[in-house]
Amino acid sequence: MAKPASPECCIACLSRPTGTAEAFFTEEHIIPRALGGELTWYALCKQCNDRFGHTFEKRAKTDPAIRLAIHKLRNVLPDLFGDIEEGQPYIVESGGKRLPAMFRGGEIRALTRTVDGDLWAAPDQAEAAVGGKLKRAGLSADEIDAAWTRYSEGPESTPIELGAGLHAASHPTRLVGPDLGKGETLGKLVALKIAYEFAALHFGAVMLDDTPPLNEIRRALREGDETSPVFQVEYKMTTDRKTEAFHGIAFEGNLPHAVMQVRLFGLLAYRVRFPTLRIEHKPFGLHQDLCTGDQVTAYRDN
After folding, report:
1. Phi, psi (5° rounding) for residue 87?
2. pLDDT in tens, 152-195
3. Cis bond upstream, residue 256 (ω within 30)
4. What angle do CA 152, 156, 160 make, to 5 degrees?
5. Widest CA span in the chain
6. Integer CA distances (angstroms), 279 to 76, 175, 201, 262, in order
7. Residue 102 and residue 134: Cα distance in Å, rounded?
C-alpha cells in the first residue's frame, strides 16, 4: 500500500508547518502500533502525536478484553503477543500464596515481595534476596555462602535454617494467569481517534474544515474528554464471530448520520457515531491481516 500524502495541517490541532512538512509531521499509526496497527500516515504534529501516545493510547494494551484476545492468538501472533504482554501483570501461586508476577522478555517472572512478613522471590532472584537479608543480619561472606548451599541443596517446601534466626524454603510455582484487574478499558477516545483519523485519511479536506462540530471532535481528542456530545461510542464483543488475526475499520454510511466501526482482533467491535456529521460517500472498509500485514480496502455499492 502506497503511503498517503500528508495533509496541509495537523489533523488534530489544525496547526500548519512553519518549515518543511518532513520536519513537522510525525508518523501516525491509525490503529495503535502497540496493538499491531500497520496503517500509517504523516498527519499529526509531534505535540499531538506525543500527547495521544502518552495518554489514552498508552493504556490501550492493558484492556482486559485486548489481553484475552491476544492470549487466544498467542500461537498465531507470537511476536505481537510478546509486545502486548511485555510488562503486564500476572499472578502465580507458590507455597499456598498468590503472588504478583510480570511478563518480561518472554517469561513470566515472580516479583520480589514481602507478604505477611515473609520475603518471596523468583528462583533467579532468591540468592540475591537471601544474601541481602543475611548480610544485613551481620553474617560473613563465608557464612552466607554456606547458608545458600544449605538452602539450594535442601528438600523442596522445607524451611532451611540460614542463621541469625532466618529460615527459607523453596516452593514450586504455578502460573495462575494474567492479572486483569489492574488494566484499563480501551476507552472511547482510542475508538474515536481511529475513526476520526481514518475518516480524515479517506475524506480529506471535508474532515479538516474549521467548523464547530469538527473542532469539538478535535478538542475532545486533545483534551482527553470522553463526555463530548459530538460523538458516541458503543462497544460490544461480537457473539457471531471468534477471535481472529485481523483488525478492521469501516465507514458504515449515514444512519442517518456518519457511523464508523472499529474492529480489533475480529471480536471486539466499537461503533463510533457522529450525530452532527453526514459524509456523502458509499460505505467501505479496510481489513488488515495481522499475520501477513496485508491491507485490503473494499467498497459496497449500497
Report:
1. 80, 0
2. 888 988 989 988 888 888 888 999 999 999 888 888 999 999 99
3. yes
4. 60
5. 82
6. 37, 50, 13, 17
7. 26
